[in-house]
Amino acid sequence: MKKLVFIGFLGLGLTGCGGGSDSTYVPIDKDNNGNGGSNNAEIQGVYSGSTNQGQSVTGIIEKNNKFWFLYTPPYQNVVSGFISGDLKVTGKVAQTTNGKDYYFAGATSSNTSIMANAETKKSLNGTIAYSGINQVTFNTTYDASLSESSAKLSDIVGTYNGTSAIVQGVEKATVSIASNGEISGRGISGCTFTGKATIIPGAAYFKLDLLFGYSQCYMAGQTVSGIIYYNKTNRAFYAAAENSSRQNAVLFLATK
User: Fold this and answer.
1) What pTM did the predictor assign?
2) What is the structure's pLDDT at 232?
């Protein structure tokens, strides 16, 4: 049986002030690698680091440059939210204008933009900007051992008792993953969900798709897509996903 990891509710999320305007989604022109052209830094992989507010950051950047940055409250080690979006790389500059910060501990979501300096398989350091003058700087280092390992379904098969969060609230939940990647779960509210974890060749994470049931579910009948990431070093299990409108998201945390 897997152990429970609690989401933190103390301190501020990356939003600092919380909230933010809900501006129009801005698409990014990309080549097949999510970049602006050739001779650009390669940013795919797993990163770890911190912000100038004392928050720890774990970042997963997919092969198409879709990113998921999970963060903690200041000077704590429990995840309270994540930022997602699509990064465009030009030379050594990585940027996005469609970042979305889901701060579950504060029950808010905010639009963000990111500008960062990227060094291939070394680091990603930059600034996250919100509405007004609110900004957060971050420094992260590429983790070769985690980034260059291939995830296997056998790593995550089992039943997890953990914490599930959407923007509107948090509850304890149980999630089971079968050897074929099929997922089933239930929160203490009675909300059920099903889905699939899919291997991505050569990647350290899994593709995640979930469908919520209709009974007792705030996101009744909705689907979300994202990633599952399992850190073998500290046995931490993370699942992060968002719906197609990016108005809501799901975070599940546990340890194996």
Assistant:
1) 0.84
2) 85
